[in-house]
């Protein structure tokens, strides 16, 4: 029987239950799993974030536990036939170790790379980072979270000195007189969150949404600003321009708690609302109404992928943080700035060492003091730790190229579908000497691998996740993995034993790993030293930083000071610039990507759930009826969307919700409907975030 299960299931015994959280998004809705022997049910659970609610993905999550596509034996590619064939664990791990050894001998340690995921538990993310630095001693590790919140993370650090997606509990949304959501669509991506928005509006609060599409969230808004994709930064600067000219900025707050406002004030002085209206298409009156609402009481500004997934994503988020600071919002009750993190452990996954430039506790890998601390916990010489690697897309784009990695280990990610310019990434993966994928389903990336390792899934493992509030949660196992399946921690231990002669540094018990993570994070920005599993269970989670087991955790940041050297938040002047690729005669339309309610990320899991497949069976191309008229397209016509990088084919879905100059496709599908065949691989110079949200395309009937 696994920890967290309330009773064993045997004939005559009561059902086994586990209180845990949904496997999918960063809301990490609380749920109860009940195994009655013949079926596993999801039951509602009262938890502060979801208050008993779940979306369709959560209700159906257990369908994958016994899914016929479940991998239960390692697979090795047979050199003669080119097919993946079942193999023993010994043979599979031996093959991986031998392949790594051969690549290292021929090309050096950095020729082996690791690619992680924002869905891995804290323990797995931590162990993976340690494995790369200690067992492989490669600098080349990064993860798919780079494509999720990295722009907000970078902007948050440079303004506040810390990156915690929401610096306050989610329930604080209800306390805001005005909520401004920029490029965020929680009504579709995390519906239970909208309960807090409903509370806010029942209190008389206002919801204002900035989004190029009339999304499910925008439909609920009191005011919807619908800018041209890629112009959010100009909108933010115009809002601050109006705040300055109308005398709405909080001068006392700016003087007492910030630095750098004067330069920002000079920058936004040039963002005349009428000019911004011409650039973005947002009426001046709507800009004015937005600023006046934000300045008239408590207010929260939230950004998400729509604002962040751009080659200027960091600057765009900075522009909204500048606005929040000028209005005196961060650190005030019911007010502030926050980012809605996307992936299940998008927050914890970016704190403990999967990122190319990072060590556990959100420490920088090029900081000598950080290296010394973590090396001490790991029992290695600081000089033996590799330096920083490169961000995710650059890493994948270098695979198999001269000087680039020749072997890649992938855990919890499917870049063949989720990477920008995915056709090129797929070719890079094909060019490797060794591709190893650990997953519980044969994703599109696993299908290319030389070795596939079947690993446990969420209801079969213990550990912790950190949700979008920075609240550390317990993931509890309902039952052990099926025969033939191992945990990711087992895989790392098995490989470490083969590569280094011992697995002593890679425990397989997640509680032991978490205890080490706490020590490694102690004193860092994301300090988990005081977070224990017992505390999480007692208090419905613990908010980091939490340095002392007997001291308080930190649900709300910034009340008195910001964690910067002088305790002040920093304004950062930013200017609008065009998208990396603009429309032209050959590619006359804007293309943007996003999500649908019934699918999650690259769809490896949700595309296999019957109810979700029925609700969202395939990809589509959304376009405005006026554009469809111009193109002679009718609902359901097969379309080809072509950019400079590739094409996608999917049926037309006509909707007045989108601008007539823009087309949209969800990114959950591979194959011909793969939206990322088209997307632009231009990246933000600070965060490495690719420009998923805008590129230039043409649309034709197939
Ligand atoms: S909102 Fe997110 S965490 Fe909640 S049930 Fe849906 S997918 Fe799961």
Walk me through what this model shows.
- The chain has 702 residues and is α/β, with parallel strands linked by helices.
- The chain has 3 domains: 87-147 and 345-461 and 474-543, Rossmann fold (3-Layer(aba) Sandwich); 150-343, Dimethylsulfoxide Reductase, domain 2 (3-Layer(aba) Sandwich); 589-701, Barwin-like endoglucanases.
- The protein is built from 23 helices and 30 strands.
- A 7-stranded mixed sheet has the order 5-4-18-17-16-6-7, covered by helices on one side. It has a 6-stranded mixed sheet with strand order 24-26-25-30-23-27.
- A hairpin with a 4-residue loop joins strand 19 (463-466) and strand 20.
- Helix 3 runs parallel beside helix 19 (488-500).
- The protein is globular and about 70 Å long.
- Mean pLDDT is 95; it is low at 1-9.
- The chain binds iron/sulfur cluster.
- Iron/sulfur cluster is lined by residues 22, 24-25, 27-29, 50, 54-55, 57-58, 190-192.
- The site of iron/sulfur cluster (SF4) has 14 residues, from helix 1.
Helix vs. strand class: alpha/beta
Q: What is the residue-mean pLDDT, rounded to a whole number? A: 95
Counting DSSP E segments of at least 2 residues, the number of strands comes to 30
User: Which band does the percent of strand residues land in?
Assistant: 15-25%
Give the CA-based shape: globular
Bound ions, cofactors and other small molecules, one mention each: iron/sulfur cluster
First CA to last CA: what distance? 55 Å
The major β-sheet equals: 7 strands, mixed
- Number of separate helices: 23
CATH architecture of the largest domain: 3-Layer(aba) Sandwich
Overall helicity: 25-40%
Main sheet: which strands, in order across? Answer: 5-4-18-17-16-6-7
Per the CATH scheme, the topology name of the largest domain is Rossmann fold
Low-pLDDT segments: 1-9
Number of domains: 3
CATH class of the largest domain: Alpha Beta
